[in-house]
Specification:
Strand content: 5-15%
Distance between the termini: 65 Å
Strand order of the largest sheet: 3-4-5
Helix content: 40-55%
Number of helices: 12
Low-confidence stretches: 12-23
Mean pLDDT: 89
Shape: elongated
Number of strands: 7
């Protein structure tokens, strides 16, 4: 019996750690997706980016809550004289009215205006934008949430994920801010593709069964353009792990590959290599003085810059 108990306890601990790691991964993905949008809002409305991100994370469960999935509402803002679209959700009472948005950008914008234009929160704007603790306690004191631990929750998130670093930002990535904010997860009911940066370009990793049309709708870019950027047919179905660039690829790999050739690996194609380095397939052939019908060999060394 004692052995069975210990095994059960161990399994519970492992499941708890696994659950925490999964939660942390969702939080990190959310932060990477929306930090530039939060910084943009900070520059426009003087609300600390750390506060915006922490509220978004907490109120939307890192974008996984019912309100976020069905109504793109990332901040739990109820209707309150709202004339736009609505959705209903059980909160302090059953079937309460909440604001609904076409995309996440609208939710972030409305959250900023909700705080900036509401006399209830006016005193918060006298605080420094680096005073995230003051903002957190102020939001609770001004009645943003009924949870008695609301300020501590926000502060905990900010400090655990070091969100305070974004309050000192002097610039942000406008491309990420725009396209991460105009996604439509509520319409398609799935998690966002994290956006990465390489060789002066943005890219995502495809999931099994993705299409260019789905990706284009999520990112807010013409799916025909994305297919062209990646030198693919727009009707293709994508496979797990494929690199998909969101802007036209460069002609050469980054500078660090100037004297470092690529060694062809088993199963690689010229297209695979071009995608790996974020360069155009035509440029890869030209750099190596090869014709498009040339068959590369395992171990062959190819210039990528």
């Amino acid at each position: 019996m004692r052995r069975t108990y210990l095994i059960g306890l161990l399994l519970m601990c492992v499941m708890h750690v696994w659950g925490q790691a999964r939660l942390n991964g969702q939080y990190l993905q959310y932060i990477n997706q929306y930090k530039d949008l939060a910084i943009e809002q900070m520059f426009k409305y003087r609300i600390p980016a750390s506060i915006t991100l922490a509220q978004g994370l907490f109120e939307s469960a890192a974008g996984q809550s019912e309100l976020a999935r069905k109504g793109n509402n990332h901040f739990g803002i109820k209707c309150h004289d709202w004339l736009g679209a609505t959705t209903y959700h059980d909160d302090d009472a059953r079937g309460e009215c909440f604001r609904a948005y076409r995309n996440v950008l609208e939710s972030y914008e409305d959250h900023s205006r909700f705080l900036a234009n509401n006399s209830r929160y006016r005193r918060l704007f006298s605080l420094s934008r680096t005073d995230y603790r003051g903002w957190a306690h102020g939001l609770k004191a001004c009645g943003y949430a009924t949870n008695p631990q609301y300020a501590q929750k926000l502060i905990g998130i900010i400090e655990q994920y070091q969100l305070y670093q974004y309050d000192r930002a002097t610039k942000y990535d406008k491309f990420i801010a725009k396209h991460a904010g105009t996604d439509q997860p509520a319409a398609r009911g799935g998690a966002l593709h994290p956006i990465y940066l390489y060789n002066k370009n943005y890219y995502i990793y495809a999931r099994e069964g993705d299409t260019f049309k789905q990706i284009g709708k999520e990112i807010g870019i013409s799916y025909r353009a994305i297919a062209n950027y990646n030198e693919r047919d727009r009707r293709e179905v994508l496979h797990q792990g494929e690199i998909i660039y969101l802007k036209k690829k460069q002609k050469r790999a980054p500078k660090e590959f100037k004297r470092v050739p690529h060694v062809v690996q088993p199963g690689e194609s010229m297209y695979d290599i071009a995608q790996r380095y974020g360069i155009r397939l035509e440029s890869l052939y030209k750099m190596n003085r090869l014709s498009p019908d040339y068959q590369i060999q395992v171990g062959q060394r190819l210039r990528v810059r």
